[in-house]
Amino acid sequence: MRQLECVELMSSANNFTLNYARALLLASPEQMLVDEKRKPKAMSHEQLSKMGREMSSIQDQYKMAEETYGEDVLNLGASEGLHQQAGRQRGDRSLPAHQSRGDP
Fold this sequence. Notes:
This protein has about 100 residues and is mainly α. Helix content is about 70%, strand content about 0%.
């Protein structure tokens, strides 16, 4: 099951690097691993706990950004359209600087 979770995390983050895979392995709880002998012992328990908390925080932030992305893009597009409409109503054609000076 943990392998599937890691694949989903890597896919959603579009990050398939060896370092990211190792970080996910190190952040995995021991009870979720099949063979404990394969787990690298390069980090202390305290470091692993800290990295686990950081990974959880990053995952939450990523999910929040993913959930609000569509609405944010829609709001940005709507505000740009309103800005252009207001400019047309004022008669502002928003010419590029070289055209407003009379340059070719």
